Every structure is written in C-alpha cells, then in structure tokens.
Amino acid sequence: MELKPLKGQHHVSAITANAKGNYEFYTKLLGLRLVKKTVNQDDTSVYHLFYADERGNPGTDLTFFEIPYAGQTHYGTNSISATSLRVPTDASLAYWKKRFEENGIEHDEISQDSGRAALSFRDFEGQRLVLVSDENNKGVSGGVPWKKSPIATEHAIRGLGPVTLTVSRPELTAKILKDVLGFREIGVYPSPVKGQKDIRVFETGEGGTGAEVHLEERTDLDRERPGRGSVHHVAFRVESKEELDKWVQFVSQVGLPNSGFVERYYFRSLYFREPNGILFELATDGPGFEGDEPFETLGESLALPPYLEKQRSHIEATLKPLDTKEN
C-alpha cells in the first residue's frame, strides 16, 4: 500500500478551564481568529474552540476543550510539552516580547536553541507556547492572518510550528514517527536542561517550521498529570478522505490500537496512541470550516455538525453563554 507523506501539523488541541478567558487571550492578545465555536463531539456539555488564521487553513489551528473543573497541570513526561506558533521574522519576536511585557505575560528571553529564533511564553493557565521565526523557512507555507486581527500583518501569527514531545522512552516514539508515520530524523540540538540528552528533530512532507516534531527525553521528571494548561493531542495533515482510509488500514495492519475512521464534519480523523501514551490524530485537510457558516461570520455563533443539530436546544441549555460576536 502506497501512502503519501503526511503534510505537517494539522492542529493541536489543548485544555482550558475558562472559555471566556481563553477567548480573550487568543483573539485579543495573540490576534488569532476564532473560526469555530462548537462543542466537544465526545462530550457535548463543553465547548471546543478553534483559533487559526483567517479561515482555519489546515496547519494553523490551535484548539481548546473547555473543562471547567480541570485542575492545574503537573508538568512531566509522556506529554506534548510545547506548542509553537509561527511568526514572519526574527524582528517579529522583538515586537512580541515587548507586547508580552506590556501585558504582563510570563515569557523567557529570545533564544536560538533549535537553530531558529524562538520566544517561549505561557498563557494565563500555564499553557506552554513558543513563537518561532519563519525568516529562514523553506518548507510548508504558513497561513493568511485575519485582516481584522489586532496584530499588524507584518508580525501576525501564521500557523503552527514544531510540537515538542517530552517522553521517558524516546526510542519507542521515534520508531512510530519514522516507521509508521514516515517522518525523517534530520538533526539534534542541545537540551536547555542541564544533564539531559540532545533534542531530536523529525520532519515530514515538505519539512520546515510547519512540519517538524521535536523529541525530548527527560530523566528528571515524573509522568505528566494533565489539566488546564496541558495539550490533549496533536494532529497531522492528510490530504483527503481516500488517503485517510489507507492510513486507517495501515495503522491497523501494524498492530496499533486505533479509533478507526471518525467523522468530525469539519475534517475526518483517525486517532491512536504511541507507546509513551501521547495521542496522535491524522486529519484531512477538508472540508473546512465554511460548510455551516459564511467566511465573514466564522466563530460568532454556536456551530453544530448536522448529526448534533437535533440536540441543539439541550446543548445550548447546558453551555455557559460565550459572546464571540466581537470576534
């Protein structure tokens, strides 16, 4: 069976305990567009919020499940420990550093640890985020910033960059990345943590900022206990449903327990866990977010896929109202 290479990051899904605060931070401070306000299809009592470029192009989505009573995350291994977001240039990082300082956002200094300029920061719940410069990117193209964003286009976030996986048994994860998902190992860079091994870099498809996974081994940490401020899963891009059907068959053939084909309406998916317990998703590039809302008003109303529409009155009665009309 011939499988096309995965095209890079599709989306990253994380956990928040405060949908209103989350919406304010990611739209007003980071300047992302809320392209879909919907519910967790596996638990319709909670919001699922999608932030992205102007129309939610694949590779630009950072999404959040609201779990109101989620405890604080205890950081550790077997986790997606950092989500990076692409900005156009090295100079953009200086702009963002100043913006974080003006708004009291916890952040580190600009670094060059991974070979490209980067600025680590945390949101109000401790979500671990990194801005990375696309100045020398030669791989997957970024998205198109929303024109109504409060951030000037020359510095606006253009999509997802590398995700960092922190694990206790790196060879097991590396084997899945290379032998199952078809990633290429292309290099290493020093760990910022004294006494730890180099961080390994893997890429897929066209490579570049939007198609890398960084694999970190940590021997000084216990297993992560997730909560608000943690990442639930990372999804990688598959170009079509026909290609996803091949992946469903292949992942089963190699003996990995998996979800099988899952209809998400905005895209189609396959889920499985690698041996360290991190949840991976393969997701199709389409159909996209404009099947149930026009481009001009994406994210302003509660959107439900057709198979949940009959439950709308119950779902709306359960959810705490969230005004996103100013999105």
Low-confidence stretches: none
- Rg result: 19 Å
| Overall helicity | 10-25%
CATH homology superfamily name: 2,3-Dihydroxybiphenyl 1,2-Dioxygenase, domain 1
Description:
- The chain is built from 6 helices and 15 strands.
- It has a single domain (9-318), classed as 2,3-Dihydroxybiphenyl 1,2-Dioxygenase, domain 1.
- It starts with 8 loop residues before the first strand and ends in a 9-residue tail after the last helix.
- By secondary structure, it is of the alpha+beta class.
- The strands form 2 sheets. An 8-stranded mixed sheet has the order 2-3-4-1-12-15-14-13. Strands 6-7-5-8-11-10-9 form a 7-stranded mixed sheet, covered by helices on one side.
- It has helices at 19-29, 90-102, 170-180, 241-253, 306-309, 312-318; strands at residues 9-16, 33-40, 43-52, 61-66, 79-87, 118-122, 128-133, 159-167, 184-189, 199-203, 212-217, 231-238, 262-263, 267-273, 279-287.
How would you summarize what this structure contains?
The protein has helices at residues 19-29, 90-102, 170-180, 241-253, 306-309, 312-318; strands at 9-16, 33-40, 43-52, 61-66, 79-87, 118-122, 128-133, 159-167, 184-189, 199-203, 212-217, 231-238, 262-263, 267-273, 279-287. With 327 residues, the chain is of the alpha+beta class. The protein has a single domain (9-318), classed as 2,3-Dihydroxybiphenyl 1,2-Dioxygenase, domain 1 (Roll), CATH 3.10.180.
